[in-house]
Amino acid sequence: MASTWAAFAAAEPDLATTVEQRFGAYTHHVLATLRRDGSPRTSGIEVRFLGGQVWLGMMPDSLKALDLRRDPRFALQANPGEGTTMGGGDVRIGGRAVEVTDPAAKAAYMKEVEPPEPFHLFRTELTEVVRTYVEDETYLVTQVWKPGEPVRTLKRT
């Protein structure tokens, strides 16, 4: 089962706001894809939250785009920032990326983002959203959301 960003944000608005703020704090993040042989590949990427979707734009024929065309599974890690404070915690999104080839959809994205052309555009289907943070300098807290389920919170000392 997968979900759009809009559906996730409607189901869990507080967590969605935190995750979006963490991604909005920096421009560049880390995308993990799967190579042809199944091994992981990590790449830098810019992420856009527009129209209830999480969008991934890429240069033509980039390795990450070719990976996603072959196997759409991905993990997206927000840039943790400088130092060790990680205000808002560590956040990541997992799911599948669906390439957008419809000219009207790409034109709408281009109007908002103005990417260099040509480019690959993928919208995401979420299968997991995770936030990990330290609470009261005592607990390591992990919040896990999956489509159709409430947020599960785990605390460890």
Secondary structure elements and pairings:
Layout: H1 5-11, H2 13-24, E1 28-34, E2 40-50, E3 53-58, H3 63-70, E4 73-77, E5 90-99, H4 103-113, E6 120-135, E7 139-145, E8 152-156
Antiparallel strand pairs: 1-2, 1-4, 2-3, 3-6, 4-5, 5-6, 6-7, 7-8
Helix pairs in contact: 1-2
Average per-residue pLDDT, rounded, comes to 93
**What's the count of strands?**
8
What amount of the residues lies in strands?
A: 35-45%
Q: Give the number of helices.
A: 4
- The value of Rg in angstroms is 16 Å
Residues in helix, % = 10-25%
Described by the principal axes of the CA atoms, the overall outline is: globular
Low-confidence stretches are none
Structural class: alpha+beta
Could you describe the largest sheet, including whether it forms a barrel? Answer: 6 strands, antiparallel, barrel
Q: Strands of the biggest beta sheet: in what spatial order?
A: 1-2-3-6-5-4
Question: How does this structure look, described?
Answer:
This protein is an alpha+beta fold and 157 residues long. It has 4 helices and 8 strands, in the order H-H-E-E-E-H-E-E-H-E-E-E. It has helices spanning 5-11, 13-24, 63-70, 103-113, and strands spanning 28-34, 40-50, 53-58, 73-77, 90-99, 120-135, 139-145, 152-156. The chain has a 6-stranded antiparallel beta barrel with strand order 1-2-3-6-5-4, surrounded by 4 helices. The radius of gyration is 16 Å and the shape is globular.
